[in-house]
Amino acid sequence: MNGDYAIETDGLTKVYRSAFRRREVRAVDGLSLRVPRGATFGLLGPNGAGKTTFVKLLLASVRPTAGSAFLFGRPCWEAEARRPVGYLPENHRFPTYQTGAGMLDCYAALSGVDAAERRRRIPELLELVGLKDWGDIRLGKYSKGMLQRVGLAQALIHRPRLLMLDEPSDGVDPVGRIHIREILRELEQQGVTVFINSHLLGEVELFCRDVAILHKGRLVLTGAVKDLTLGKGYELSAKSVPESLQAEVLKLPGASSACVNGAFQARFDSRETANRTIDLLRSGNCEIDSLAARTSTLEEVFLAAVKGQDGKAA
Amino acid sequence: MKRNLAVTAALVKDTFREALARKVFWGFYGLSTLCIIFFLFILKIDLVEGATASVSLFGKTADQAINPAEFVRTVCGAIAVFLYTWGLALAIFASGSLVPGMLEPGRIELLLSKPLSRAHLLLGRYLGILLVVTANIVWLVMGLWVILGLKTHIWDPSFLAACASALFIFAVMLGLITLLGVLWESAALSVMVPVALMLLSPILSQSKFADRLLSSEWSRQLYRVIYHMLPKVYDLGHMTLEIARRQPLPEGAWLAVATTALFGCATLAGGLWVFSRRDF
Q1: A59, B109: Cβ pair inside 8 Å?
Q2: Between β-strands A162-166 and A193-197, what pairing exists: parallel, antiparallel or unpaired?
């Protein structure tokens, strides 16, 4: 297996079987995925798509039914393969009897960080996540957002090369989300691979350069966010367009239009149609507000991918 | 090696913190301290020329002068049995929730994501619980031993055997608690089964009575198999008493120790095997 990839899976499959009913659930179904070192990668999918099971397979919390998984070229079931990995699970339950600093100290020791480095690193990380004054307070007193932030500090304590975050901004306020994003950007610049598992498409779109979409345990789409959201055609917005001119624009090949809040908005498949529309509108002395290449949101890409997969299944 | 030791130390420290937070340690420690205070104040022994003594308990003096060495041995035997039975029961109650606690969803995933083997993780927890109980038992036994020593000027090391035997039988039961914990993640079940075995043990150890009671040979064989398979809590308690009283050990005592140790090893190995294969 290639060590150039932070994560590499080949036909990874997990089937849960109920003991008595002989019922099978294929949580992850033949998933082959490669995440290069230094990537910012988002794993998307509706609830029950198999995202968390996939992460658990990578971290050996769950044993695969078939296939293989590697972290930096090492089989993921080897304990040493997890040494460069920092992980923040979804619905984590940190021991409430620990203080923030105590919890960090415990998990750092389990990650193999020596005592001197722990003493240096803990205050540094508490400050980074905005919990400088909370280190000596028990985790039972922390809010959900604070637990999420101390959880991120826990994932970073041993300077990981791969950061796996399961719903990292869950319960965090908008300011906290921006702060987390800034921390992740800095890590990206340091060459850390960031793997985010989330159903918050906006968050993923803002941060990740590459995404994969899972549906019913299968990989339905993967690629760079900028390529996936790149739409075809152009979009134009204009004011004071007479109805006769609107009708003329509609007659052009590959054009569609609509009136939104009194503004005329038209879409075109080709540059040629867009130019002909501009000529028409200018000849009618209409004011053009904007003209831009059309893009899709990640949400549109996601919905199209999931619906397309459902359509195939039907 | 050094790194592995640091990881084990972190697991043990975490178990102590959890035991402290769950008030398990303090409850256990408090009861032990009460027991020590009880002996400190109610037992009064006046030695006369080192050979005989008058003993007062609850302020009442014994009618006859007694041999202090004999008296200390008797007291030690009684305390050893008390320690063995009640100490063991308390230790089981105190530790029943500590293995299932580690397996709670949201906690176990994070522990498993760390670069340590599952066996190391579970054995670290096992060791942590054992050390929590050891700290309490050593405090209680040493405390009582020092009080008896100071009051009688007889320092009988055989009493310390109670410490070893109580820890040995607890280590065996902890193997079972660990197995039950990883199988069903139930604190109640992790307590119920070992206590049931404790209660069953005196019945199973009555082999002569069972031989008379059971009519067929196969049922007697089955009885013997069950007896040898399960931990011999009663037999080991009897051994502890004999050691504390400096009496010879009963016949077959070491076989009881060996088969009990085997039970502990088998249950702990079973726990490790289940834990290594489970999905979380």
Answers
A1: yes
A2: parallel
Enumerate domains of chain A plus CATH numbers: 230-295 (3.30.70.250)
pTM of the model: 0.85
Residue B73 has pLDDT above 80, yes or no: no
Secondary element (H or E) of residue B275: helix B253-277
User: Distance (Å, rounded) from C-alpha A156 to C-alpha B262?
Assistant: 43
Per-residue CA distances from A245 to A60, A216, A257, A277, B50 (Å): 64, 48, 11, 9, 124
What confidence tens digit (pLDDT) does each residue in B126-139 have? 999 999 999 988 88
Between CA B171 and CA B261 the distance in angstroms is 9
Say if residue A310's pLDDT is above 80: no
Find the mean pLDDT for residues A30-50: 94
Q: Nearest chain B Cα to A113, which residue? A: B3
Which residues share a beta bridge with A256? A267
Please give the Cα distance from A211 to A298 (Å, whole number): 10
Which of B17, B105, B279 lies closest to A62 in CB terms? B279
Chain B residues closer than 8 Å to A95 by CB: 14, 17-18, 21, 107
Residue A13 confidence (pLDDT): 97
CB pairs under 8 A between A and B: 85
What's the average model confidence in pLDDT over A183-210?
92
Structural tokens at position A18:
């109920």
Q: What are phi and psi of A151, to 5 degrees?
A: -65, -40
B113 and A92 within 8 Å at the Cβ level: the answer is no
* DSSP conformational letter for B153: S
Q: Cβ contacts (< 8 Å) between A102 and chain B: which residues?
A: 17
The 8-class DSSP code of residue A190 comes to T
pLDDT at B195: 95
